[in-house]
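re: ur question from earlier - yeah i can do the single chain one, its not a big deal. heres the input i used so u can compare w yours
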Amino acid sequence: MTLPRAIPAEPVARFAAPHLGMRRGLLAAGFVAGVILAAAPTWAADGKVVHPVRVDDTKEVLATVESVRTPQARARIGGTVESLVVVEGDRVKKGDVIATVVDPKLKLQLAAFDARIAALEAKLALVQTELDRARQLRASGSAPQSRLDDAETQLTVTQAEIAAARADKSSLQEQVTEGRVVAPNDGRILKIQAVAGQVIMPGEPVATVATAAYILKLRLPERHARFMHEGDRVLVAGRGLDVGKKDHLGEGKITKVYPELDQGRVVADAEAAGIGDYFVGERIRVLVSTGSRETLVLPEDLVVHRHGLTFVKLAGRGEVPVQTGMRMPDKADEMPWVEILSGLVAGDEVVRP
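and the output i got, formated as tokens:
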């Protein structure tokens, strides 16, 4: 999020106030919609000349933790689920065995191929013996050439039949191997769709894997679409009761804004650190910028609260009542700033009470 600079002013002297970033706006609001001071105003040693500054309005939205991809581990053959070696939440690597599907007919077919190959090998031995006899008889002139040719042809045919039977057996063994259902990618098991002992068809899903890369899915009303841009910063709150703790506030950025509205809402993806251990589908609070505006701000120590009213002391005029808005705290060792909604105009000189 590119925060614009304050409107140029002509102060008496510069005050080295730091940049008030999005994090302070979030902490001030107790993680509710607020404003973010784009640049700190200037003030003099004896007073402050009020000048408008530009602030970013923020909006609190609920973002959903989603996986970048959720591929499914599917069965490649039909049969019965013999075993499941994972449960929901387990972490898997690409190629890890998730389940085993067994088709009893494949074992019977393998046994049939073994018997067929054994019969062909016995036939091959007999054909080889016949060929050797035909060669001897042909050498002595006791057998015609046609008998030798027939024996050689029978040998070639039998060898080809054995090779074909072995190839069919290898194909069947590969089908048995395909009974192992493997993880399509690294990640966590999100859902198990099969149970041990279940009959399953080829292509049916056994488990859904959430890839290790997580994103935040944002959905905002379409009136905010013009303020959403790739690269904008967002603030992410903690989980549950940790929302208000500073240590649990993180910063992320918008990585993609989808060009199509979904039921009147603009959809965007955001990346943030520390969400890898969140639940997929968990909703967390996020602050996003929804535009900028001009306003007046003052250090909080220049504002006096008395009898339920708020006053600011002006040079040469005394105290005047004001209405304050959002409080925007700075760092722990510095004075917070407060927004002035009414009671002051640009050019007023505020002095310490």
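The chain has three helices and 22 strands. not sure if urs matches, ping me
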